Amino acid sequence: MSIIARRLGRIKPSPTNMLTGKVAEMKAAGQDVIGLGAGEPDFDTPDNIKQAAVRALERGETKYTPINGTIELREAIAAKFKRENGLDYGLDQIAVCCGGKQVIFNAMMATLDPGDEVIVPAPYWVSYPDMVLMADGTPVIVECLEENGFRMTPAQLDAAITPKTKWLLLNSPGNPTGAAYSRAQIAALADVLEGHPHVWVLTDDIYEHVIYDDFEFSTIAQVAPALMDRTLTLNGMSKAYCMTGWRLGYGGGPRELIQAMTNVQSHSTTHTASVSQAAAVEALNGPQESVAEHTAVFKQRRDLVVPMLNQAAGITCRVPEGAFYVYPSCAGVIGMKTPDGKLIGDDTDFVTYLLESEGVAVVQGAAFGLSPYFRISYATATEALEEACRRIQRACGRLS
Ligand SMILES: Cc1ncc(COP(=O)(O)O)c(C=O)c1O
């Protein structure tokens, strides 16, 4: 009999993290690989943030902090919510966790009973369904089609709600598509939710600042204040401040929920590193110029990658509103054959072909719940991206 719990049989290892591991192995073996799988900015953490961490160490801030974060940090987060989102959260309505990932995990552990349903629009960030499953919930996947901009329509939301629905997970701008919901589109979803008072919404706003052109970011509790008492607003330092390794995310929500999430965390990680918390205070309260500078570079890369992909035979790519991903369709290459006679039967075959023939590592749409697509993270050096797109064009040109 296996030592591993049955619960683990329901989940699978993160395919994106696995790909990152595979790329590292191939590079170590001397192979020429361009990894476009990892969802993290390639920029270094801004220096003012690093220096704040150094000062915290020098002050001896190396001990336990309150579980839900230092008062100073929660004050900085409350000020951020007010300043950028017009939301009023008290200090006891804020949870600080080890990354946005733990905000979701804590929320699911704190609220789901067996059989409770969570609506997950697809394509989704790979961890959502597995976190729901680990907490004994049932993910209800709603396929959001490219013709609707990869967005869930109000009718789809309404049809997915049952008496067992506990949460809707919303992510805008989204991973893996980069699609974002406008204020009016969020308001239309909120109208549906207002008719179903038992449904809560977790809005994952981690890509809030990575948004392009004239698109305006909105978050649901701001658009529909009536939902404030059943909304968990998630954000974090990883993407906006290039702080993936510092592990700091946070959520604002009703007191009872935050208290329950804090209880969960008190028996697992206790809190995120004291030094990371001091750095996050500086990130939120200090100069913000680097955020816009990084977004400007991401926009240039998006504008490089999208046309190059559209020039690849059999590939079509929508222009995303935000985040640093594109989610091109590879429908046009399905059914074709590689030069050595292998059939491209689905998007997994296609990404395997790209990796084996050209050393370009991307993630198949199947991992995100909508095929036939693949995800490219363009949070990588511009020259490498250009070379990767040339290789994809070459690989597609060789199919017949
Ligand atoms: C949609 C989305 N939410 C949350 C996260 C979690 O980021 P972190 O745990 O580093 O804050 C990620 C990271 O890839 C993400 O893409």
What does this entry look like structurally?
- By secondary structure, this protein is of the alpha/beta class.
- It contains 14 helices and 12 strands.
- Strand 3, helix 6 and strand 4 form a beta-alpha-beta unit.
- Helix 5 runs parallel beside helix 6 and helix 7 runs parallel beside helix 8.
- The mean pLDDT is 96.
- The site of pyridoxal-5'-phosphate has 13 residues, from helix 5.
- Pyridoxal-5'-phosphate binds next to helix 5.
Uncertain stretches? none
- Residue share in β-strands: 5-15%
What does the oligomeric state look like here?
Answer: single chain
Which strand order spans the largest sheet, edge to edge or round the barrel?
2-8-7-6-5-3-4
Helical content band = 40-55%
The N- to C-terminal Cα distance equals 48 Å
Order of helices and strands: HHEHHEHEHEHEHEHEEHHHEHEEEH
Number of distinct beta strands:
12
Summary of the model, kept short:
The chain has helices at residues 6-9, 15-28, 47-58, 71-85, 99-111, 127-134, 154-160, 183-194, 220-223, 255-266, 274-285, 289-310, 347-358, 382-397, and strands at residues 34-35, 94-97, 117-122, 138-143, 165-171, 200-204, 231-236, 249-252, 325-326, 360-361, 363-364, 374-377.
Give descriptors for this structure.
single chain, 400 residues, alpha/beta, seven-stranded mixed β-sheet, three-stranded antiparallel β-sheet, 14 helices, 41% helix, binds pyridoxal-5'-phosphate
List the helices and strands and how they pair.
Blueprint: H1 6-9, H2 15-28, E1 34-35, H3 47-58, H4 71-85, E2 94-97, H5 99-111, E3 117-122, H6 127-134, E4 138-143, H7 154-160, E5 165-171, H8 183-194, E6 200-204, H9 220-223, E7 231-236, E8 249-252, H10 255-266, H11 274-285, H12 289-310, E9 325-326, H13 347-358, E10 360-361, E11 363-364, E12 374-377, H14 382-397
Parallel strand pairs: 1-10, 3-4, 3-5, 5-6, 6-7
Antiparallel strand pairs: 2-8, 7-8, 9-12, 11-12
Helix pairs in contact: 3-11, 4-11, 5-6, 5-10, 7-8, 12-14, 13-14
Bound molecules: pyridoxal-5'-phosphate.
